[in-house]
Amino acid sequence: MSSELRYTANTQLEHLHARYTGTGHADLTKYDWLTHQHRDTLSSIVGHPTLTSYLAIADGESIGRVKFEMTERMLQPCGPPPRKDED
Amino acid sequence: MSAPGSPRLVDSFTAPKEILQEFADLAEEENIDPFAETASKRQIASRQSDYHNRRFSRVAQDSADAFKHVEEGTEVEGGYKDAMRLARLEQEELRVRRAIEEKERQEREEGKMKMDLDKTPPAAELEEVERELAAAHELAKSRDTSSGTKRKRRWDVSEPTDENVDPNRSDKGEWSKEALEASATKKRRSRWDATPADAGAVGETPKRSRWDQTPVAVEAPMTQIIMNAPGFQQEDKHNRYLSDEELDAVLPATGYAIVTPPPGYAPSVAPRKFMATPVTEVGGFQIQESSDAAALAAAAGLAPELPTEIPGVGSLAFFKAEDAQYFAKILKEEDETELSVDEMKERKIMRLLLKIKNGTPPVRKTALRQITDKAREFGAGPLFDKILPLLMERTLEDQERHLLVKVIDRVLYKLDDLVRPYVHKILVVIEPLLIDEDYYARVEGREIISNLSKAAGLAHMISTMRPDIDHADEYVRNTTARAFSVVASALGIPSLLPFLKAVCRSKKSWQARHTGIRIVQQIAIMMGCAVLPHLRNLVNCIAHGLADEQQKVRTMTALGLAALAEAAAPYGIESFDEVLKPLWLGIRLHRGKGLAAFLKAIGFIIPLMDPEYASYYTKEVTVILIREFQTSDEEMKKIVLKVVKQCAATEGVTPQYIKQDILPDFFKAFWVRRMALDRRNYRQVVETTVELAQKSGVSEIVGRIVNELKDEAEPYRKMVMETITKVVATLGASDIDERLEVRLVDGIIYSFQEQTTEDQVMLDGFGTVVNALGIRVKPYLTQIVSTILWRLNNKSAKVRQQAADLTTRLAVVIKQCGEDQLLSKLGLVLFEQLGEEYPDTLGSIIAAEGAIANVVGMTQMNPPVKDLLPRMTPILRNRHEKVQEASINLIGRIADRGAEFVPAREWMRICFELLDLLKAHKKGTRGAAVYSFGYIASSLGPQDVLSVLLTNLRVQERQSRVCSTVAIAIVAETCGPFTCIPAILNEYRTAELNVRTGCLKALTFVFEYVGPQSAYYCDSVVTMLEDALTDRDLVHRQTASVIVKHLALGVAGLGCEDSMLHLMNLVWPNCFETSPHVIGAVMDAIEAMRVTLGPGVLLSYVLQGLFHPARKVREVYWRIYNALYLGAADALVPFYPDLGELSEGQNVYDRHPLQVFI
Asked: Are B428 and B483 in contact (CB under 8 A)?
């Protein structure tokens, strides 16, 4: 709330930011932030054919397999979310 | 026209009309309140028509929440059933009243009744009428006893009202006809308002003689919302009795004795009320809280001053006399501890409403928020009890209405289904907005009704509004139809369709059918092409209305079809299949209004058809149209013209057909002088003729009317001219043969010369036709130019101005024709005219000179540029906008094209004059002035111009400084940045704040304009930017950040990363600034840095604070991160830190795919 008041002229920008996945805010947890980073990394690999084929050669898998696995892993790249503290 | 110099015969000699008028005005001015008119204009009720003001006579009732009662298992009271019964009752009442009136009329005709109203009519008649009234009354009673509703709202319909009618009637029997008339008239307004003033206003005789009877009615504390009008209070101010003190002040102290009242005289309780002038036929408002003396006094205008400071409310922007009666309870101090919870709540609502209605914007804002937040706590009842009466106040002004409507809107949203019992009351108040002449009021009304219907639900809306559908009053039906269309658009047409079908087929009353069809019409008008999916159903709904036995229903059906076709255009003809036959049969059967509506529908349906059908149906309808050309009915004329236009525009209608069958009759009927006199007819005829010309060609139309250019009636000539202008402008003049051309040019010159009021139409016409003819106009040019020259020397400034304007338009054509001789002649004459004293005319003359200079070129220009420009220098001081703009355009053009013809000294003089133009109000003028600096600088070399501009940075005026900075930047752009940047940097060392800011500002524009060129200069400005970015002054840092932004964007990819990184370090700490402009500029600079330095560098800055313990830091850093992320998400991937060491338990944070290597 306070940030909204502080940037009155740019509140719209802030709203716009919030509409995109991967953007963060002051209360973002370590887990959430890193999950986004991992997803970005995976999608970057899938999106750049050179990276995909590099990984495919390193792993000895087909390119399609690498793509598939990367995509699959995007679901929970850093494992399940940690349990919330009760306090 | 009489020949000049010939003596004119005048029948009498008297003072000129103007002088007499002036005397008359002076005499009137003595006792005029200059604000009286505006004050009454602000009041909505006073500027609206009688029809609009019928809203004051509407009755609202409770609409019980059927759903809630079903849930609770209780009996529904005061709901749909009651409302319907009430509606029927009113109809019955109306019928009886009509019967009475009819009877009276008959009697009067037969001469049985004398005009003397005191005379008693035969007892038998009286009894008969009395019996009828009694029957109606009985019906009313039965309703009241059967329903037995307990009603709390004071504007409610209620039993005591009937009692009030009753005694009047029963003991007025002896007074004959007059008494009956009185009761009948009273009932017309609405029999529910039984306040004394009302009766007093109607029949003076009975009321006057029965003083003591009146106050009886007051005991029933119920007035409808509608009747709270303070009309007579206002009147009261002037008509009240003089008090003893006032009499003492007026009369001399001696020579008068105060006589004691005669024995037995008892002053009545409230004598004021009886003195209400009967002129105001307004029902009276009764102040319920009669104990509140202060409010009474205030309402009567006795209080010397109106309060602006209310306890518990604070100061208000204004307070009107009428407000006192609504807010009486909070005007005085009260002991809050004695009040019950409900009373407290009521006071609270009143305070908030008063703040919203009369408060200053900040007060209003907080109050509005409070009332919204607490809406459910207050409850629907108490809220609407206070809001709705305010909205029906007669002296309500736009602003107040807007605010109250806003309150309703907000409150509605919060209350949701709690509003159900108040739906009808809200509708009664809001529906009138739907026919308001103000567009925004209509939109507001729609918004509210749409929200209302979403909150209350379709079923409830229908059951509430159903009784109004066949209401006896047309006004009620009209507004209800509109409200229904809003409901349809809010809840979807399909959900309302079954209901509409039923209503449109209602057997019981034609009013219901009429309203149902009108709803469909309104839906079409409001929703536009959104009706398309339901078009067939909607048409189906109303189609049978074309054969209705009621003429009004048939007319409305045709109008509804027209609206549907208009909304659906150009699609959906197949949906209209079933109505085609009845429509085309109908135009043969009907006459008058009905026919007009049918024609209108046809006019809108024909454009939807396929060409061959359109042609066939057009032929069918043309016969009727041609017959109706002769009509004298204005409405019919308009519709016929419109239909002709629509038919002519359709593809299937051939030019041949139009030429042969339509044009002869059309011109005979409509191209007559009479049509030019009425503004609306004029426009319609012109539009239709232009449309016909599209099909039949220019020469056909122009040939028919060109002779009329020499008609003796000026308005008619104007109409011809406008038509020719439009036709030629759209279709060109290639179709015009030589003979027609001669007649046309001749006619145009004639009508131009003969005009008595200098009109834009003539000017446009002349310009358009001559430009369209192009080179063909050469033979006539000598004549035209001599006309212009003659008019340029005319006595009237308007004529001179028009001649100059015409020159502007003709310059290009004259050049095309190779008549340079004429141009230079015109140029010289215009040059001589530059001493013109009327600024409008002077502006036109300069513009004309500019136009000539434009086509001739600077070298051939006559007068030579070196003479022209010095003449312009003093004119630049003219403050008139038009003169300024015209002269700056001319000078700018000379500077651009022919600067070398003028000595440098003259240019410098102009530069100084131009500085003043930087203050001009018009943006165009400022822009032109700024560009002129650029042209002048490029021809003279930038030094002198630059020094003028830099000196100008010292002036006080902000606008002037800003424009100078822009001009500096433009000079830099035209002459190369190297010419300016050193000078700016040097100037920056001045100790004056304004100058330094100005220099920074100038640099922002310079770097914005020069783009990648800035790479050469970025090292030179770094030290200055260092200084600016570390300055204490906020604006300095802000402007410097803007420079950094432009610089960074300009040099991206050009190898200036080192200096950019340095600037980045200086910009970065500013990210904690809070002032909106500063933070905006800083964020922009950081974004620009992302482009230049790459997102990786920025990420390393951002990482420092993303998880900072202080929230304030985190918030800012996340903001920057988000901007970074959105700008370059993919590019960030390699730069994310390796955080594998943070892994714990199931969560592994290593990015394994990145650790793979071959």
From this structure: no
